[in-house]
Design goal:
single chain; alpha/beta; 5-stranded mixed beta sheet; 3-stranded antiparallel beta sheet; 12 strands; about 45% helix; about 20% strand; elongated; plasmid; transcription; transcription regulation; LysR-type_TF_proteobact-type
Length: about 290
């Protein structure tokens, strides 16, 4: 299989970089915990691959040729970039105080403004988000936000909010389809979430809670709530909205309640506190609940 980069052996490049920096095969070998013969073998193989000499061998060491100096400069820049990236990754891992997992919708619509407010009060506490719209039990996190019955998980939790679910659309969509009642709403295009793993309330659930049959209109199915909201703003159809979650969208007038009726959310949004949560994670959890 063809490699994506036109590179010789990385082992040979490492040996060359050490030998060029030290100006000695012997010192390079000592640094890399190998024999001078092994370093010499790697560099000979590299020179054969490139079709040129990289060093001038002297009795008291080696000197770079013009092409060797050119290669050394390029390799050093590359290694410095890799070293900087590795250092940042290691440091970032050590400095993250709180890791919280949630969906893209909850992160964008609700959590990010809360984190921004938290940082103004606690600037030294770092918070890292892991956003995913697929439920997962893998990967470390201190906290996670869920929509559902908190008692089913058996995990320590805090209730966040349990709001009302409204039918949303644009004013233009309401005018175009003449929506003023639930009977009208049953006939218009509706945007559905087809990711059942998240357990979000469906249009059928919503109509049944209000004593009506399932909708008859055209359906548009997506697996991401942010896409669903954008589709509604583009007049593709009506979408269900949790008023506590989409309050900023409604306040801006991008979506409006199409009918006056709404239903109470059957389950709350809640925060799970995982077993290995840090003390700062618990402090953030307590602050988050009080900030609602």
């Amino acid at each position: 299989m063809r490699r994506p980069y036109d590179l010789p052996s990385l082992t040979a490049l490492s040996c060359f970089e050490a030998a060029a920096r030290k100006a000695s095969f012997k010192d390079a070998a000592q640094e890399m915990s190998v024999t001078p013969a092994a370093v010499s073998h790697q560099i000979k193989a590299l020179e054969l691959d490139l079709g040129c000499s990289l060093f001038v061998r002297r009795s008291r060491g080696v000197e770079l040729t013009e092409k060797g100096a050119f290669l050394f400069l390029s390799i050093r820049r590359g290694f410095e970039g890799i070293s900087e990236a590795v250092t940042q990754i290691r440091d970032r891992h050590e400095t993250v105080d709180v890791t919280i997992r949630t969906t893209t919708a909850i992160s964008s619509l609700w959590l990010m403004p809360k984190i921004s407010a938290f940082w103004k009060i606690h600037p030294s506490v770092s918070v890292s988000q892991v956003t995913s719209d697929v439920p997962s039990t893998s990967g470390h996190c201190d906290l996670s936000i869920h929509y559902g019955d908190p008692d089913e998980s058996g995990v320590e939790h805090r209730l966040l909010f349990q709001d009302r679910i409204v039918a949303l659309g644009t004013a233009a969509f309401a005018a175009q389809h003449g929506v003023s009642s639930i009977a009208d709403l049953r006939k218009v295009p509706l945007i559905h979430m087809n990711n059942e793993e998240n357990g979000w309330t469906t249009w059928t659930d919503w109509f049944e809670a209000l004593g009506h049959a399932a909708p008859k209109g055209r359906g548009f199915f997506v697996n991401n709530y942010m896409i669903a909201l954008q589709a509604a703003q583009d007049d593709v159809g009506a979408v269900l909205g949790w008023d506590g979650l989409v309050s900023s969208v409604m306040a801006a007038g991008r979506l409006i309640a199409l009918v006056p009726q709404s239903v109470s959310s059957p389950v709350p949004f809640h925060l799970r506190i995982h077993a290995k949560a840090t003390a700062k994670s618990r402090m953030f959890a307590d602050w988050l609940v009080k900030a609602i």
